[in-house]
UniProtKB/TrEMBL annotation:
Gene3D superfamilies, sorted: NAD(P)-binding Rossmann-like Domain, UDP-galactose 4-epimerase, domain 1
Domain of life: Archaea
Organism: Candidatus Lokiarchaeum ossiferum
InterPro entries per UniProt: dTDP_dehydrorham_reduct, NAD(P)-bd_dom_sf, RmlD-like-bd
PANTHER family reported in the protein's UniProt record: DTDP-4-DEHYDRORHAMNOSE REDUCTASE, METHIONINE ADENOSYLTRANSFERASE 2 SUBUNIT BETA
Residue span, RmlD-like substrate binding domain: 3-288
This protein's name: RmlD-like substrate binding domain-containing protein
Stored NCBIfam families: rmlD (TIGR01214)
Pfam families: RmlD_sub_bind
Length: 289
C-alpha cells in the first residue's frame, strides 16, 4: 500500500482528500498547527522520516486581504516553501501534488472565454502573484509533480483562515439574516467564475495520482456563474426568500484587485478522460448533505 502525506489534512480541501484516499492508501496527516511548510529544516526532516511515495500539499496563505498587507508571508508560504517541498520530494523520489488558483488570471479585462492551461497568466493581486511564483518554482525544480489550479472552493470542513468557512456558508447566513429582517442583499454581478465542492477536486486527485501524466492541470466543475447567479441558486435550493440586488464588486470596497472573469477550462483533464460534473447538481448535493 502506497504511503501518502497530506499537508493540511485538517483544512477544507485536505479533509476531503484524506476521506477519498484513505481506503486505498496509507495516509499520514500533517496538520497546520504542527507542520509549517515554510520551515525548510522541518520539511526535510519530517518527509525523509516518513518517506512517502506521494506528498499532497494543501497549505496556502489564502486570505487575500492579508496577502496585500503581509506580502513577505504570502510569498514565503505560497512560493518559497515550494522550493523546500520540491527539493525534498526529489530526494525521496516522491510525487508532489500542489494546488494553485484561478487567480493567476485576471489581467485581461476583456476576457469572456475559459482559460486553458497554456494561456498566459496575468494575476492582479499579491495572492495570485505569489501562487504563480509557486507554480514556476515547482515547474523548474520538481521532477514529478501535479500542479492543480482550482476555483471557488467550498467544503463541509470549512476553511480556518476566513470569517466564514466558505462562500456558500457565508451566503446562507447573510441570506437568512436578510430574510428575517426583510432586507435586500447585495451581490457582485461582475465576478464570473466556477464554484467547486472540495470533494470533486479530491476525486480528480485520486485519478491523477494513478497516472504519470505529470504537469499543470485545471480542475473545476463545468459551467460558470457570477457570484450573484450562484447565490440565487443557493437561495432557490434552500427556499430562502430574499431579494438579491446585483452590484459591482467596488460596492464592497475590496482591499485587493479582483478578476472580473476567471473561469478555467479542463482541457488537459479531458485529454486524460477525466470529466467533472456541472456546478449546479453538486451544489444541490452539498446543500442537501
Amino acid at each position: 500500500m502506497k504511503k501518502i502525506v497530506i499537508i493540511g489534512s485538517n483544512g477544507q480541501l485536505g479533509h476531503d482528500i484524506k476521506k477519498i484516499l484513505s481506503n486505498t492508501y496509507e495516509i499520514v496527516s500533517l496538520e497546520h498547527n504542527n507542520f509549517s511548510i515554510e520551515n525548510e529544516e522541518l520539511v526535510q526532516k519530517k518527509l525523509k522520516e516518513i518517506s512517502p511515495e506521494i506528498v499532497i500539499n494543501t497549505a496556502a496563505f489564502h486570505n487575500l486581504n492579508l496577502c496585500e498587507i503581509d506580502v513577505q508571508n504570502a510569498f514565503l508560504i505560497n512560493s518559497i516553501a515550494l522550493k523546500y517541498l520540491s527539493d525534498t520530494c526529489n530526494q525521496i523520489e516522491a510525487t508532489l501534488v500542489h494546488f494553485s488558483t484561478d487567480y493567476v488570471f485576471g489581467g485581461d479585462s476583456q476576457r469572456n472565454s475559459p482559460y486553458r492551461e497554456k494561456d498566459f497568466p496575468y494575476p492582479i493581486q499579491i495572492y495570485g502573484i505569489s501562487k504563480l511564483a509557486g507554480e514556476n518554482i515547482i515547474r523548474q525544480y520538481c521532477k514529478k509533480y501535479f500542479c492543480i489550479r482550482v476555483s471557488g472552493l467550498y467544503g463541509k470542513k470549512g476553511t480556518r483562515a476566513k470569517k466564514f468557512s466558505n462562500f456558500v456558508e457565508m451566503m446562507i447566513k447573510l441570506g437568512r439574516d436578510a430574510e428575517k429582517a426583510n432586507e435586500k442583499l447585495p451581490s457582485a454581478m461582475d465576478q464570473v467564475l466556477t464554484f467547486n465542492p472540495t470533494v470533486e477536486v479530491a476525486k480528480v486527485v485520486e485519478k491523477l495520482i494513478k497516472t504519470d501524466a505529470y504537469g499543470l492541470y485545471h480542475a473545476t466543475c463545468e459551467g460558470q456563474s457570477s457570484r450573484f447567479e450562484f447565490s440565487q441558486e443557493i437561495f432557490k435550493i434552500l427556499d430562502i426568500n430574499v431579494e438579491l440586488v446585483g452590484v459591482k464588486s467596488s460596492y464592497f470596497s475590496p482591499k485587493y484587485n479582483q478578476p472580473h472573469y476567471s473561469v478555467l477550462d479542463n482541457e488537459k483533464l479531458s485529454d486524460l478522460g477525466i470529466e467533472m460534473p456541472h456546478w449546479k447538481p453538486v451544489l444541490k448535493k452539498y446543500l442537501k448533505d
